[in-house]
Every structure is written in C-alpha cells, then in structure tokens.
Design goal:
EC 4.1.1.23; TIM Barrel; binds orotidine-5'-monophosphate; globular; orotidine-5'-phosphate decarboxylase activity; OMPdecase_type-2; Orotidine 5'-phosphate decarboxylase; Aldolase_TIM; 12 helices
Length: 260
C-alpha cells in the first residue's frame, strides 16, 4: 500500500483527519524528558491521531541528544499510524538524494515535507520512493507567506497557484502543504488541484478555523489531514488534556463535515 492509501485507511478506521504534531518546547524539558513526555502524549492521543508529525527542528535544536529523543518518540508510535517527518528539505539533486535517504531509509518516515523552490528535479529523489508521501510546500501558514508565494507571475497566476498545479502533476505520491490561516488560498488550491492530498497546519496555536478548513477543502480521509502541534501537546498539565484537545479537534472537523 502507498502512504496515501495507508493514511486513508487509518483515517477511516478511527474516524479522524487529525494529525498530531510532536514539537517539544526546549524551555520545558531536557531532551530525555521531552521523549518521556511525548511518549505519554502519543499513548493518550493515539485513538484520535490519523497521523503524527514530528518537526525535526524541535529535536535538532538539542543536537545528538535531541536525535536520540526523536528515536525514542518514533519507537512509541503504534504500528499502523503513519508518521510524517516535517523537515522541509530542498536542495540540488545529489543533496536531495541524501536528504531522501536520511528521511526515508534511516528515519523510516512514511511521508516528508519538502520545498518546491529548487524545482522538480530537486523533489524527484523524494518522489522516487513511491510508497512514501511527499508534501510540497504550496501556501504556508505564516504571516509573511504571501511575500513570495502570492507574487503574480505575469499572466501565469500567483506563485502558490503555479506550485499547486505543477506539484500535483509531479507524481501520484505528491501532496501539498497549505495553511489553515489562508482559507481563500486553500479554496483556490483545491480548485486548481482537486486530486492533490493536502496537509493543512495552522489550526490551534496559529488561529486557523477547523470549520473553515472543511468548508474549503472538504472532509476527505487520506486527502485532507489537519495538523495541530502546540494546542494538543501542551493543552494542559497532563496527557489527558492532550487527548481531550485531539478529540475536540477531531469532533470540530466532523461537525463541520456534518453541517456541510
Ligand atoms: O509543513 C508544515 O507542517 C508547516 C507548514 C506551514 O505552512 N505551517 C506550519 O505551521 N507547519 C508546521 O506545522 C506545525 C504547526 O505547529 P502549531 O502551530 O504548534 O500547531 C509546526 O511544526 C510547523 O512547522
């Protein structure tokens, strides 16, 4: 089975399109404590998690002990729950090959995030792993996202629109990252690339609306995956609060589906 088939199966099995982001805050823990803490979060949130998404930066910030923590976190994720390695890589082909080997073979992620900025050849080493998923940054969730991504390409639409059209045709295992904080752009991406699977971060701490996400992108297991990190992992004092936050997000997305 491909990554997107596995994700769809997991999403349907548990009735959730929630991705739980695993981004430890260095101010709160040592790397070893972070691993213990996140293992507790995983145990508590697994019933609601269609996927997990550790962002590598939050582990790399500690150096080697952080990578050891990541190894322990990944080992705690139950088999059958896909894991996205959020690394946002992008480089010339030979370097991209090394990145792809690192993420898919050494770390064994089911999917990764990559930047389209270097062009198709730089994403091919990732897309060559046909059973894995490759989410290409299209319209990000940050306040300055429009600075480049919304630039008009004289007659060719805006840059993120071009990325949506191009990346969607790069291979059956290519998906797009579109932030929940930009609902109009999300709707436009779905118009331009209706078959492209979407990873949608930006609800929770960044303020995006789960209901708007479903209104713009639909509720499509495997094709639409909505990530929240801080608002789940640090929802409260114990893993029970994280479980409640993940469940609430699952329910908000379902309610939007049922209302539509
Ligand atoms: O690729 C991503 O996942 C990503 C893309 C984007 O446009 N915005 C975005 O927030 N992310 C990541 O999604 C996570 C969001 O975290 P919270 O804001 O804590 O929910 C972080 O790991 C971000 O790096």
């Amino acid at each position: 089975m491909t990554y997107f088939e596995r994700l769809a199966a997991r999403s349907r099995e548990i009735g959730s399109i929630v991705c739980v982001g695993l981004d430890p805050d260095y101010r709160r823990h040592s790397p070893a404590e972070a691993a213990d803490y996140l293992r507790g979060i995983i145990a508590a949130t697994a019933p609601f998690a269609a996927a997990y998404k550790p962002n590598l930066a939050f582990f790399e910030q500690w150096g080697i002990p952080g990578l050891q923590a990541l190894e322990r976190v990944l080992a705690a994720i139950p088999a059958g729950i896909p894991v996205i390695g959020d690394a946002k890589r992008g480089d010339i082909g030979s370097t991209a090959e090394a990145y792809a080997r690192a993420l898919f073979e050494a770390w064994r992620f089911d999917a990764v995030t990559v930047s389209p900025y270097l062009g198709r050849d730089a994403t091919e080493p990732f897309l060559a792993y046909r059973d894995r998923g490759v989410y290409i940054l299209c319209r990000t969730s940050n306040p300055g996202a429009a600075e480049f991504q919304s630039l008009d390409l004289s007659g060719g639409g805006r840059l993120f629109e071009r990325v949506a059209q191009a990346a969607a045709s790069w291979g059956p295992n290519a998906g797009l990252v579109v932030g929940a904080t930009a609902p109009a752009e999300l709707r436009r991406v779905v118009e331009l690339a209706p078959a492209a699977p979407l990873l949608i971060p930006g609800v929770g701490a960044q303020g995006g609306s789960p209901a708007e996400v479903v209104q713009c992108a639909g509720y499509r297991p495997g094709q639409v995956l909505v990530n929240a990190s801080r608002s789940i992992v640090y929802a409260g004092a114990d893993p029970g609060a994280a479980a409640a936050a993940a469940r609430d997000l699952r329910d908000a997305l379902r309610a939007a589906r049922d209302a539509g």
